[in-house]
Structures are given as C-alpha cells and as structure tokens.
Amino acid sequence: MVKIDSIRDYMRLQAEEDRKRKWIQVEGEDLDDALRQAAIELGSTVKKLEYEIRDPGKKGTFGLGKSKCIIIAYPIVQPVSDKSEQEDGDFEIARLDNKPVDKDGVAVVRLTSEGALLTVISSVGKGSMVTVKKALALLNARYVTDIDNSLVSQLVKSADGVSVKVGDFVYNPASDPLVSVEITDFEMKAFITIRSPGRGGVDIEYDNIINLLKNNNIIHGIDEDKIRELENLPVYEKSIFVAEGTKAVNGNDAKIIYNFDVERSTIKLKEKNGKVDFKEQNLIKNVVEGQALARKIPLEEGKSGRTVTGRLLPAKDGKDIVFEVGKNVKLSDDGITAIATINGQVITLLGKLNVEPIFVVPGDVNLKTGGNVTFLGTVLVKGSVADGFKVKAAGNIEVLGNVGRAELDAEGDIIVHQGISGKNGGLVRAGKGVWSKFLENAIIEAGEIVVASDGIINCKVEANKKIICQGKRATIVGGVLRAGEEIHAKSLGSVAGSDTVLEVGFDPKSKKRLVQLNEGKEVIDKELEGINLDLGTIKNLNKLKKKLTDEKKEYFNQLIEKKSEKEKEITQINDEIEEIQEHLASLSVSGHISSSFKVFPGVKIHIKDAFLEVKNDFNAVAFINENGLVKITKYEELEEDYSKKK
After folding, report:
1. For residue 116, which of 184, 171, 193, 196 has the smallest C-alpha distance?
2. Is residue 19 over pLDDT 60?
3. Exposed (0-12), middle (13-18) or buried (19+): which is 326, by Cβ within 10 Å?
4. DSSP characters for 193-206?
5. Residue 93: pLDDT band by 50, 70, 90 thresholds?
6. Which pTM was predicted?
7. What is the DSSP letter of 518?
8. How far apart are the two ends of the chain, measured CA to CA in Å?
9. How big is the CA angle at 362 (ends 359 and 364), to the nearest 5 degrees?
10. Minimal CA–CA distance to 167: which of 136, 213, 189?
11. Strands (DSSP E) along 358-474, which ranges?
12. Using an 8 Å Cβ cutoff, are 467 and 450 in contact?
C-alpha cells in the first residue's frame, strides 16, 4: 500500500524539479529596473536571481529610438535537503530595496481525472495563514465528496505547496471550463481567457491548453512555464499572456572605430605639479610606423523574426561602408585595419586617413597656436618660438623666425632662419646639425655641426665635428665652445678681452660623460669612507669582547652588504672611465681652430692635451697641435660654404 508520506516526498521532488526550470521574461527601463520586476514576479531577491540579457535596450536621443531592456530571469537553484531548506528556497520573503513583502497563504483546489487535489502554500512575513476551515470551504464549494479531513489538516499544517488528492467528485464533462484565444499586436501576442468550470467540471490541464493554442495556429513563442503555472494554480476569468512572437532585428551598419581623437578642435590639457600646463595642448596626433589607426566593424546581418502563428518577419542587413585610406596608410590583408606606413601626424581628409611626415605651425609657437609641439616627423614653424615653449621632432625642425629662451630637440637638423637668443637658458639639441643666423646666450648641442653666419656670443656650444661662423660678421665672443674636429670664425674674442674658451680634438660627449663619472666616483668614495669607519667601530667593540646587541649585528651585516654594492659600482665606473680614456686617446683627429681676420687676447685654446692662452693679437691664423704644443700657422680658407644649408 502506498503511504501518504511516500506520495508527498515524490510530489515534493517533482515540484522541486519544476521550480528549477521556472523562468520569466520581463521588461524594464534599464537592467536594474528589469531585475526588480523579475524579483517581484518570482518572489525572490535580486541577489538570488540569474539572468540573461535578450535586449540591452537603448536610451535614445530626445526620446527617439528608445527601447526597453529585456531579460530572462530565473532563481538560483539550491539543493533541497529538508523541509526547512525547501521553505526557505521556494517561498522566501521577497525583498526589494531591503523592504519585506508580506503575502497571504494560498489554498488551491483542482479537480482532475485523478480526483480532487488540494495545494496549500505557506504565508510570507505578516501574511495570514490558510486555515483548515478555509481549505474545507474551498473543497465544498467544488462539490468534493469523501474528503479526508485528517489529510487536509496535515496539508494545511505543512503548507509546502505540494498537490495531494484529498477526495473525489462526480465528473460532468458539460461543466468543463471553456478557453478563448485572442491574437493581438499584429500576431505578435497571444492571450487566453479560461472560464470557470461548473459543478463536476475538471480544471484545465497543460496538454489541453497547448493543443488549443496549436488548433488556433499559435505555434511560436509559447510560454510553456506560464501554462504549467496555470495548470498548478489556475486563473479564471482573466486574460493571460501565453505566447509572444520574436521581433525581427535589423543588423547594425558597418562603422569605423578610430584609435585617436578625430575631433581636432578638442584640447586635452595636461597637469604638471598639480597645475594645468596650458603649453601642453596635445593637438598633434602622433603615430608610428606599423601603428593601427582605425578598425572597421563589419555590418551585421539581420535576424528574422516570427509571429506567434509562425509567419516569418524578414529583417534588413546593416549597410556597408567603404573603408578608404590615403597617403602613407595601408589596409591590412583582411581589409579591416588601417595601418600607418611612416612616423608622422595622422589626419582625416575627405573621409580618408593620411599620415603627414611634416607638421606645420602657421605662426609662432605660443599659447595661441597650440602650445608645445611634439611630432614624430619634421616640424616647420612659420613664425618664432616664444620663451618657455618646446618643440620636439623625430625629424628636422625649421623655424622661419627667431627662437627665444625655448627648448628645441630634433633627431635630425635644426634650422633657424633668424637667430637663437637663449637668454642664458633653454636648450637647442640636434642629432645632426644646428644652423642659425646668430647664437646669443644660448646652450647648443649638435651631433655633427653648428653653423652661425653672424656670430656666436656668450654661448655654450658642443658639436661632435665642427663649429663654423662664416659670414661678414662671423665672430665668436665669450662662452665655451667644444668641437671634435674644428672651430672656425672670422674673429675670435673681443677687444675687451672677453673670456672665450675654445676646445677641439676630442669627443665632447665622451668628455662630458667622463666628468659625470668622476663626480659620481667622488660621491661613492665618500660613502665608502663612512661605511668603513662604521665597520671599524663595530669590529673594535668585538675585539674588546663587548657583547654586541642584535641591532648592532644586523647593522653590521647591512654595512657589509652596502659596502659590497658600492665597491661594485666603483668597479663599473672605473671600467667605463678606462673605456672613455682609451677612446679619447685613440681619436685620430688632431683638431683645428682658425680665424680668417683676427684673434684677440684672452682667448683660451685647447687642442687635445695642448693649451694656449692668447696674449697678443693675431691676424688670419690657425692653431694646431704639434708634439703636444699649440702651434700657430698660416690661415687657410674653408673648402666648403657651410651657409648654403639654409
């Protein structure tokens, strides 16, 4: 004989499996709103829901093109081990924004071919509970006979949502419920309305509803979970949404995603030491060879839809666009990515991507024209460079006006059509040559040559090869000038005896590095001296057999380790110093300093290891190193006109 407990356990497991499959589709203004709606309908909390996004929705513009977020939500399935867990999992208190929701208990009577079934669902929170009296009243209202009062009492007490046969009834087919079907919204939605069964009529079942829908040509988008719900908890005399068509979704148009800011008028200011640096306006879009500039997102194919009656709803594919590139840009093999073929500035022109190797500043480099310039190509400044501004280029820099107390840095040549007036600041550094009308109170560094037609006054100039002043007023007065091969001017020094230092016959960069290394070595030597004193103190304490504290022992070990590190640094510095000295000694260039007109007293001449301070005037002479001494020889004209660079 089958016991009621066995039936209850079996039906509980079946109900649990049904609950695992339970899901709903909801709409909301956004994802959060849709999840709140789902939590209410599922009687759960948002945290205990899993969901899938069918349509993320769109905000639209001024209300146009707006669409709702659509999700499928279902409760996270928890394993059922006992009655308490089942109650917590199935009929937990739903919370929205941490506010409890109270629900009354529910008792449902269903008449089926098996007999009269009773389902009792527990109340939630402060909701009222189902009583035995109420359950019996519902059974009597459906004319149920042979009621098992004891079983009814047990079901009310457990209130676990399981349907159990508690009696019989006299079946009358004529009293079965009638179901009407309504198709709306251009066949995109289907509703059913179930009329209450009469005396002796059975309640509607899942298979009956499914067959009825199919008989009415409703074959797509049927909400089977909703219909199973109706079988377990019938709803009468109310329109129920049971099927929804699938809307056609047009494909998105192809588009191009740029890896840089296409809007050139947008200024992005940088901060420096907590303050906005208005000189850094970042208007140039620098790119390097091989860099991806833009990527095409292909068009999407449309997804066809269907009405609830199965009618196909065609969708449109997205529109394609032509992905064109201009000069110095190529497309990848798949035609999806635009790639720069040179370093330079990326611009869009007539819908095409181009990379320009030259950046032109139409006027002066100042706040009005965009501030500092950094470009991975050649920069042409049609005006001047104002004090405090910077121009950096991977190619050449050409300035048609003047350069003030500014910073210019180029991997190639720097050409200034007027002059450079550094005002004892700024820096002009070129990987190759610096060409200017005049240099005054400036700091100049060149990888090869420095040329000034009207003279160099009180400057610090370094060139790996030559420093040339060639012109009617080609004078070098004051400052320190160093060149690897040659220094030439019309006149050297001045009547006033300005302190003018000229050095040739060595590598300026190597000599500068040598000075830095020797200075660093002195600092480390002093540090080592202090370490050795501390070590000696601790060793003396140990010899006197005085017990050393743990702190002293740890400090001693730290000193030993630090000493080892400093000694390694000294060894590395000595090795580099030796290499530079060998390099300087091996230079074959002897050096040459010449003046086509006059050399004034006070000029100091350094040619490799030879030195001479000029005491008397000399006309049209040259200075060379001969046997470790500075020798004065006859002046010889320059073989090349260096002013032609400009």
Report:
1. 171
2. no
3. middle
4. EEPPP-TTPPPP-H
5. very low
6. 0.51
7. H
8. 114
9. 105
10. 136
11. 358-361, 373-375, 378-381, 390-393, 397-399, 407-410, 414-421, 427-430, 433-440, 443-446, 449-452, 456-463, 466-469
12. yes
**Higher-pLDDT residue of 395, 214:** 214
Q: Are 375 and 392 in contact (CB under 8 A)?
A: yes
Q: Are 222 and 214 in contact (CB under 8 A)?
A: no
Residues 6+ apart with CB under 8 A from 111: 117, 142, 144, 169, 171, 197, 200, 201, 202, 203
Phi, psi torsion values for 585, nearest 5 degrees: -70, -30
- For 258-306, write each residue's pLDDT tens digit: 987 776 544 444 445 544 343 444 456 788 899 999 999 999 999 999 9
Q: What is the DSSP string of 596-644?
A: EEEE-TTEEEEETTEEEE--S-EEEEEEEEETTEEEEEE----SS-GGG
What length does the chain have? 646
Q: Please, is 391 exposed, middle or buried when counting C-beta atoms within 10 Å of its C-beta (0-12, 13-18, 19+)? A: buried
Pair 33, 69: CB distance under 8 Å: yes
Residue 475, both tokens? 């004078």
Secondary structure letter of residue 491 according to DSSP: E
Cβ proximity of 50 and 73 under 8 Å = yes
Half-sphere exposure of residue 47: CA atoms within 13 angstroms, side-chain side: 7
- Domain edges within the chain: 1-101, 173-244, 256-301+314-356, 358-363+374-507+589-645, 511-586
Check: CB of residue 163 under 8 Å from CB of residue 135.
no
Residues 391, 385: Cα–Cα separation, whole Å: 8
User: How would you list the strands of the sheet with 115-121, edge to edge?
Assistant: 106-112, 115-121, 164-167
SS3 call for 135: helix
DSSP state of 124: B
Q: Which residues pair with 630 in a beta bridge?
A: 625
User: Which pLDDT belongs to residue 346?
Assistant: 85
Phi, psi of 544 (to 5 degrees): -75, 5
Using only the alpha carbons of the chain, give its radius of gyration.
46
Give me the phi and psi of 605, to 5 degrees please.
Answer: -110, 125
Identify the H or E element spanning 286. Answer: strand 286-287
- CATH number, span 256-301+314-356: 2.40.50
* CA-closest candidate to residue 226, choices 201, 192, 202: 192
Q: Please report, as a single letter, which amino acid is at residue 421.
A: S
Token match 């160093």: residue?
A: 482
- Token pair belonging to 64: 């146009």
Question: How far is residue 223 from each of residues 26, 206, 549, measured CA to CA in Å?
Answer: 12, 11, 82
How far apart (Å, rounded) are the C-alpha atoms in residues 140 and 204?
Answer: 19
